[in-house]
Design a protein that fits this description.
The chain is α+β, with helices and mostly antiparallel strands. α14 links the parallel β9 and β10. The strands form three sheets. The protein has a seven-stranded mixed beta sheet, sandwiched between helices. The chain has a two-stranded antiparallel ribbon with strand order 1-2. The longest helix has 17 residues, at 200-216. 40% of the residues lie in helices and 14% in strands.
Length: 357
């Protein structure tokens, strides 16, 4: 085998191989994942070699042992690390009970899900025989030279990650690229374009107008668009008059007001949340009162909190404040909506899901 990469090198490479947008990314990029991958390489547990590890071997590795990389020493450790022992292991990486999160989070829901690892299929579920190894293409990626790594990482992603992963990665990478000092170009449903100031909120607004509307509205139009600092980017007075809306009250309005002009006219209020300020219950009441004053029925109103990704701390921080009866949409997963459903009719799950007898 080529010389082993260090745990530090693996840890540095994992976030590049698994960019934001990859499912369960947190399981794949943390230190325990890097150490698990290192032990697989250390043991020669690579697809096609008929060598495998079990999770508790990762817990039994130490920094001192990891530094001994000649073939004979590695082979000896692999045999010894499989033996049952009550002897304390000096400097071991993890306590023995850490084998469960290594097995479940790092390997099963992490490496196996993205095609970075393989599992023996000829063993009973309860067997303690080693069963996990790195996929050969993934091992080769980790063993390649630094100068070749960026290009090979992109090729590995294209060949191994699911299409929906790649779509999310592309959206998030495009957003990160646009988050510099360049102004953000937003293309409206009618073909017109507007420029917004650089920043994460502008990128979320861009995604709402370009991606969300195409997926979830029949005939979308932008009634109102503002940036952080309440700078108005678009105010369609003509459409507002047609809808009998007073859009002069800029302080009341959210970041984006959309109209769906067919087959039933709807208003969609959107907050583009990069740090705080979701559609909470108070905002929902205020916006509902404003729309009803213009002649809209409450049934023809929708409220959306738009964010970058559900894995962001922003969602965890604001989730409890989001209003019932509103939606959450993520730039990283544009085909999906979370509905904070409030059911006054107290339907059972079978009724909500439309389960048939």
């Amino acid at each position: 085998m080529e010389s082993l990469p260090s745990v530090q090198t693996i840890h540095r490479r994992l976030p590049v191989i698994f960019p934001e947008g990859t499912d369960n990314r947190n399981y794949l990029v943390r230190e325990i994942a890097a150490k698990t991958v290192f032990v697989m390489l250390y043991a020669g547990a690579i697809e096609g070699e008929d060598k495998w590890i079990r999770p508790n071997q990762v817990t039994r590795m130490s920094d001192v042992q990891a530094g001994k990389t000649d073939r004979k020493t590695r082979q000896t450790w692999c045999h010894q690390s499989l033996r049952s022992t009550r002897k304390a292991i000096k400097g071991r990486w993890y306590a023995d009970n850490t084998r469960e999160p290594i097995r479940d989070e790092t390997i099963r829901y992490g490496l196996l899900e993205v095609g970075a690892a393989v599992e023996r299929q000829d063993l009973p579920v309860t067997s303690s025989t080693p069963r996990y190894a790195l996929a050969r293409s993934f091992a080769q990626l980790l063993l390649c030279a630094d100068k070749d790594f960026p290009e090979k990482a992109l090729l590995w992603q294209e060949d191994n990650l699911k299409r929906e992963h790649l779509a999310r990665i592309h959206l998030l990478r495009e957003g990160a690229t646009g988050a510099s000092n360049q102004r953000v170009v937003v293309r409206f449903p009618n073909g017109e374009s507007r420029l917004m100031s650089p920043g994460p909120s502008s990128l979320i607004s861009k995604a709402v107008i370009e991606e969300f509307t195409a997926r979830f509205l029949h005939k979308p139009a932008v009634v109102f668009l503002s940036e952080s600092r309440r700078k108005v980017v678009e105010r369609d007075e003509r459409l507002a008059r047609r809808l009998h809306l007073d859009i002069s009250a800029e302080e009341l309005l959210p970041d984006i007001v959309l109209a769906d002009l067919g087959p039933r006219t709807m208003l969609v209020f959107v907050e583009a949340v990069a740090s705080d300020g979701p559609v909470d219950q108070k905002r929902k009441r205020e916006l509902t009162a404003w729309a009803v004053k213009g002649g809209f029925s409450e049934r023809n109103l929708a409220f959306v909190t738009a964010m970058r990704a559900k894995t962001d701390d922003v969602f965890r921080k604001t989730a409890s404040a989001i209003a019932w009866g509103s939606f959450v949409w993520f730039l990283s997963e544009p085909d999906y909506l979370i509905y904070y459903r409030r059911d006054g009719n107290r339907q059972r799950l079978s009724e909500i899901l439309g389960v048939e007898d």
